[in-house]
Fold each of these.
Amino acid sequence: MTASEYKKVAVITGGSRGIGKAVAEALVAQGIRVVIGDILDDDGHQTAQELNHQCAGDTQMAAYIHTDVTLYKDVIALFRFAEATFGGVDIAFLNAGIISGADNVFLPLEDEVEVNLPKVNVTGVVKCTKVAVLHMAKRGGGVIVNTASVAGFLSGMQLAHYYATKHAVVGWTRSMKMLKDICNVRVNAVCPHWVATDMQGMILNKEGDDPYKQLVEQSPRVKMETVVRGVMMLIEDEKRNAETLLTLPGDVIRVQEPIAEYEELSTSEYAALVDGYQPRVLDHYKKQLEQALDRYGFLDVYRKQQSVEPSAFSYSTKELEDDHRRLATTKIKGMMVLVICSFTTTAASPATRCASSQSMHAILRHDLNFG
Ligand SMILES: NC(=O)c1ccc[n+]([C@@H]2O[C@H](COP(=O)([O-])OP(=O)(O)OC[C@H]3O[C@@H](n4cnc5c(N)ncnc54)[C@H](O)[C@@H]3O)[C@@H](O)[C@H]2O)c1
């Protein structure tokens, strides 16, 4: 693979180890460059080094930067660092998460007890999404995958607060559906069952005879390969948007559909109300996006990108070169079309006209994307 063939760029939070690291390895194996943001600096640097060694040649494929996802200054620095290092951001895997403090119903009534879990698992995802969207909108689009969990659909006393945070990630993910129409950004979530990572240590290494420890010890695990495959499906499949994808033991991957619409709300009056609201809300958010891009210093580039290629997803140097080559070929063939046109409209026989018009249609179909 040559340097110009390395295409997209991914930001991964919580990628120093565990699921984030496994996904980073899979992305790099596909030629996608990766920037990891985490608070575990030694592990993070080590992971970036391993990823760089994973590929032949001396092209840099990975970088690490200290990032606490609960702080805007860190999150902004992460995405700006990715852009400065690799030229932009096309993919964000928002995966950083914690489980400690989840079994807190009977803990002391102190304000700090409940702070950290939602701050990392929910606010971290929200903050990273908001920054990622600006970088992706500027680039013409992108895809975000959040790490939720089966805990986003289940419930249980032992990890009640963790369950609540993952329900929130599911809600946030599904609520982002309209981003696709606003700025060509898709948002999905992977929802794994238990995976053997350090996170489980928080439960398995607990002192005492917590009955939940035994349950977790003996619970079936989902293979890391299954989780990685689920994430890759969400990244690669352009049709997947606002989707929550379960990854389960037995190598099972399936969509968890949202609950059905409430019958009580399915009236024609309400449907008409929603129909009238949809086009207006899109305009409303497109304006808000421009204001946000302006505050972030990206508006000019965004507008330029919109006027050049409104629906472009992302362009590497190689893709740009290919486009220029295609454009040049198209111009030549366009001239051929004109020649054929003038020929067919003048002295040619009906049979020649028919053959000429067929080749003209073929050129239009293949090179100008008509029909
Ligand atoms: N392991 C499982 O069984 C399992 C199941 C379902 C979902 N998940 C979710 O998967 C994600 C990854 O977890 P994992 O299993 O790989 O565990 P892990 O502990 O190995 O990885 C979590 C990573 O997030 C990082 N992190 C924590 N707080 C952070 C912060 N404030 N800023 C930046 N990074 C931070 C950690 O340093 C770590 O590298 C989490 O969101 C977790 O909730 C895990």
Amino acid sequence: MTTATPTPPAAEAQPAATVLSATGVTMRFGGLTAVQNVDLTVNSGEIVGLIGPNGAGKTTFFNCLTGLYTPTEGTVSYKDKVLPHKSHLVTQAGVARTFQNIRLFANMTVLENVLVGRHTRTKEGLLSALLRGPGFRRAENQSEQRAMELLEFTGLAAKRDHLARNLPYGEQRKLEIARALASDPGLLLLDEPTAGMNPQETRATQDLVFAIRDQGTAVLVIEHDMRFIFNLCDRVAVLVQGRKLVEGTPDVVQSDERVVAAYLGTPYEGDTSAETAPEDGPEDTTGTTSTKDTEGGTA
Ligand SMILES: Nc1ncnc2c1ncn2[C@@H]1O[C@H](COP(=O)(O)OP(=O)(O)OP(=O)(O)O)[C@@H](O)[C@H]1O
Ligand SMILES: [Mg+2]
């Protein structure tokens, strides 16, 4: 009989650290209030979903979080530091994002697109780059190595030399994620990452988001695909007409009558066998039709 090895005492349960904290965020465009007094936190190790009808203010909220917009009111902090209203400084601080309308450098290769995303993490300056000294070459090699790791991670390594514009749509979305990860973010914001994807690609994206979380990057994700959101997220917040209507676990949110009335349209009824989202609700829930260009700015 073998002697049982003593099990170590259970680690003290630590409260999860807050990674993102948005407080009272309001964004007005003239007379239109696109986002109204929204509070949201994301803790380390979490995947949080943001859902709501078309035009609810989800992308505008992301733009406020990532420095593309200066909110009319409210503050956004990342790891207890207030974020500046400049997108490159937000990226440098540790918050990366993808865009609802894909923004890749179409005529650059897959690898080059990821290297561009790496830029905020390289210290070598312009002079060093011009002189192409040993420091620059070392940094370049490290960047390329990291970029290739990310292409492996996202399943795009075999396409490293393809032009971004020649990738199928689903792979362009993955490349956007790889590029965002190249800045080594502590928080990744995904704006409709599965829009236009087929069911297999959507499932692969779900696994990819879990893997990103498991590697230590918290995730905030906007999606219209309810199966994707409710499978993936620890917590879900619902925006309707710029306001946060409900926030809670997927179970709580999908059975909330106000959410059903304002967004889901048909009772979700916890039908796990349903392969498709409700078709007769007020909104498209497949995530394939939200292509309005409302992201503002040119990041
Ligand atoms: N730069 C802008 N100027 C004026 N109005 C804007 C601007 N950006 C967004 N809006 C308006 O703000 C509201 C919220 O838009 P937003 O794109 O944030 O919605 P959304 O929830 O992301 O919708 P979707 O699901 O369709 O992507 C809309 O009425 C939109 O027209
Ligand atoms: Mg949007």
Amino acid sequence: MPKFRGAVLREPGLPRPYTESRPLEIVELELPDPGPGELLVKIAAASLCRSDLSVVTGARVWPLPMVIGHEAAGRVEAVGEGVAGVGPGDDVVLVYLPQCGTCVRCRGAEPWLCETGGAANGKGELITGGTRLTHEGEALHHHMGLAAFAEYALVAEQSAVKVPAGLAPGDTCVFGCAVLCGGGTALNTAAIEEGQSAAVVGLGAVGLSAVLGARAAGADRVFAIDLLPAKLAPARELGATDVMVAGENAVAGLREATAGGVDHAIEASGTLEGFELAASLVRRGGKVTTLGLPGPGVAHSLQLAPLVVSGIDIQGSYLGSCATQQDVPRFIELYREGRFPATALVSHHIRLDDINEALDRLADGEALRQVIDFD
Ligand SMILES: [Zn+2]
Ligand SMILES: [Zn+2]
């Protein structure tokens, strides 16, 4: 295939502003034809997630150089030997954890913890083994099996989920990370039930997806909380019944309004303060579910006696406890019914060349999802 363009990270931790240090360089890339179990996907839209920023800052260490990007939608151009269920011309949403189906976690019905997919991601390789991307003969790593900030991606078939034709890729791309993590946490990990109450702390695209998930689960009261007042209006539009600026008043107000706290608190800010706030909002016997990814050194010390006496349940949620091949179609169906208006999770549409500017907006907290349009 001909050369195509994509965004490579060579050195993490460059100084702000990124419009000047330009951590992501747009270069010409090459890929071979798809091998067994692999697909070549023409990317239509890809969006920036906070996890991309943690690669750029070096907060999370990845093998470099790497083509980054892990939330995208596109169309299958070609398939390798043995690929069934998806073929050329099919629209797909890409997912950032390929679930192998055969490891101990996949066999135990916890594919969101897939050991094989996690190990391949950690090495910056495909689950089918090794890397495929090159730039002038130099091998490049693949971010989370996708390397989606590029015009084409070569991915394992487990990294793609077929979706109905004709949907807007600028909407569907956010289903690969934001919707699975936020919506999945509400519906799967927390397993909010009809008539329960929930609070979501941190109203980025993932937190807003958790608000949508809580509503889809039938929660009758959903509190949406953020430090920034500007983040509250979108949450209300998406179905939050109560919105609050984080702080002392939020805790007191919520406790009073719910007779002692909510059934579920979801932490989606990726900060220690957010976690502590979430933990202070649940009732006795309530559940705290945390999905944010703070820096590796961030720790919380737990007072054990109050934990026992209050009977609170604290759990982590990775990939929203989703089985991607089942859960992406499930969320896409909610989207088609108008119950998961993903358009509201997107604040900017940009071009690939403007990606460093987008990193600045992301770091400044000035954006929800920023979608790179390739067509
Ligand atoms: Zn992400
Ligand atoms: Zn597995």
Amino acid sequence: MCSGEINRVLSLAIENDTGNHAMISKLAALAKRVADSRPVLRVVEVFDRRSDNRMTELGMLSQAFEFIKINGVDGDYFEFGLWRGKTFTYAHRMKKRFRIPEMMFWGFDSFQGLPRTDDDKDNIWSQNQFACSEPELRKILRRNGFRDNEYRLVPGFYKDSLNDNLHRHLANRHAAIVYVDCDLYASAAAVLAFICHYLVTGTIVCFDDFYNYKGSPDHGEQKAVTEFLREHPNFMFLPYLDYSPLGKSFIVQRND
Ligand SMILES: C[S@@+](CC[C@H](N)C(=O)[O-])C[C@H]1O[C@@H](n2cnc3c(N)ncnc32)[C@H](O)[C@@H]1O
């Protein structure tokens, strides 16, 4: 779209304000060309990705927060796999939007990136991938509006950090929303074995990489979920929303 063309149609509109058909159809064609022009489409795309209307991670979290607000599901936000805090920050934005000031945020990460894995299937990842130190993440969170008393970070690899001491520390807490974004089967399995103590009927659990490994049920987070449900018949995970290219969420039903 060139500015000369816009000027021509606009001068035609100014000279001829009787609203005749030719001018209206010229204006309509111009509007269509503007709307379809590459820079405008690019801006729309950026806003679309950032908006919570599309089922991106932000959209997913927006729906999850509205769900717990409507249904009165009380509890904290737990995230496993923080890297540089993108989804943690999205969730914090939603906490503010849906006005849940009492919700505590818990974040769990090695702060050294992914652990070593001996499973050949995991060769799409590498050891230490997604490393971000704890001080660096705290800086990012502060920049994004987190107050220090709104969140707690639990450092360490899950096989060490998700321990009995932590259970004692979290006694009487419930999870309203759980975000699992730790990529590997072993990591997701450790998370589920730990977090199940805090799940209630109505908890939303999101798995950012559920459909990874080409959607194979024998790998990654999906395998961990299948095994967990087989071993814990008192839990049902009701499929809720698919999001992003690889994510899936569930609504927890507890039958005990
Ligand atoms: C893909 S990144 C998380 C991305 C993040 N949610 C975001 O919004 O950008 C995966 C994270 O999981 C962490 N992680 C994976 N397995 C882990 C384990 N067993 N113990 C601790 N952290 C782990 C890594 O350190 C990494 O920060």
